[in-house]
Amino acid sequence: MPPAADLSSLEAEVVRRNPAETEFHQAVREVLESLAPVVHKHPEYADAKLIETICEPERQIIFRVPWVDDSGEVQVNRGFRVEFNSALGPYKGGIRFHPSVNLGIVKFLGFEQIFKNSLTGLPIGGGKGGADFDPKGRSNGEVMRFCQSFMTELYRHLGEYTDVPAGDVGVGSRELGFMFGQYKRITNRYESGVITGKGLVWGGAQVRTEATGYGTAYFVNEMLAATGTALEGLDVVVSGSGNVAIYAMEKIRQLGGNVVACSDSSGYVVDHKGIDVDLLKQIKEVERGRISDYLRERPEATFVSDGSVWDVPCEVALPCATQNELDESAAKKLVANGVKAVAEGANMPCTREAVRTFRENGVAFGPGKAANAGGVATSALEMQQNASRDSWTFEHTEERLRQIMRDIHETCHETAEEYGRPGDYVLGANIAGFTRVAEAMAAFGVV
Ligand code: NDP
Ligand code: 2IT
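That is the input. Now the predicted structure with NDP docked in place:
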């Protein structure tokens, strides 16, 4: 099929034009590998150079973030916002604060976000932002001053119809509060719809905090059901212990699964009685502590500082920490231990080789752009409530989230079948996500 060859030269061109952005190359490769049959079916997409266009961000903003720490020393960080694609709606995507943040990471996340947001079926384009700021060990005042300086530049690029950030690694309601406060002060506008993930008393939506993790749990539940397996009674391992991980664990438990292990960057804990999620919330959300603190209240659990959480035997694995945290050797270990389903709560946590290992061994695999789309979908529901100055109940919002995750699962499943690759959720998600964006882009002409 000639388009496949065209796509690999297009991929080489993306690598050439964006040197050293390895995560971005990886994310583009994964999508392009799925698109040959679509281009074959729709040669008009190739004629209009839609794939070349989609790989080029509409706008990339890089800026200096100067601030003063508690000892009076000046610190200088680098901020980013990549406004990738606005075919379906305003740019939408989180902001990440982590020392590893660079342009390549923000671009990979922004690129994934285009297709993820498309899969939700809601009117949101794709974008992502962040800074190489490390909030760990910083006081509340330092985090506030950093967020204010970050927003003092970023505000000019935002707007409820333009670009709407939210949280990601290192950015939760505290940081979003500081950013929204600064936006409001600079613009003199109470523009609720300019940020999502807001606190409930200042325009936030029920379920947004829980949404990504809950959505991942719903998605893996649907994947298991499609193979005739029940989640009830299965052992589940979750990596990370941040926002996504905590609420994935909470919903897995409610659905009858048994979460036996979770982690942070210092190690992992194993608790065969089932991870105590309320204790984890106290340690991580209130005390901002480390995962080893878990043993304080649960001395029968074990803490392992050297090794991989993927060594812990389980039937369901949910990587919810960071990109490329689950490689081929971890995937082989999971397969040897009898894993049945893997769903990505994080963005691109599984390497390409790990994904291939799961596929070759018949493990159901849900890619992040489908499995973790519940967070951004609920952000879009928050925008909807802000636009109508309304607020919905927890139950109503959760039901909407559950239905959206069911629909995303069905779309990916059916698309994979339609293209002759039943059970290939990667192909299904990439094709279904791409097609909706491509239709809109084609309608706009060359813009
Ligand atoms: P948090 O900051 O709340 O938690 C991140 C967790 O992952 C922490 O346990 C952290 O450990 C661990 N972690 C982060 N980076 C690394 C690293 N480089 N190496 C090892 N461990 C790491 O972030 P979220 O839970 O919000 O995000 C987790 C993942 O989910 C990310 O990939 C994010 O992009 C994705 N995601 C988030 C959404 C959201 O709504 N928040 C929506 C969709 C996807 P430690 O504390 O030790 O650093
Ligand atoms: O990766 C993601 O989807 C997010 N961090 C959430 C984005 C959002 O706008 O809610």
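The longest helix spans residues 394-418.
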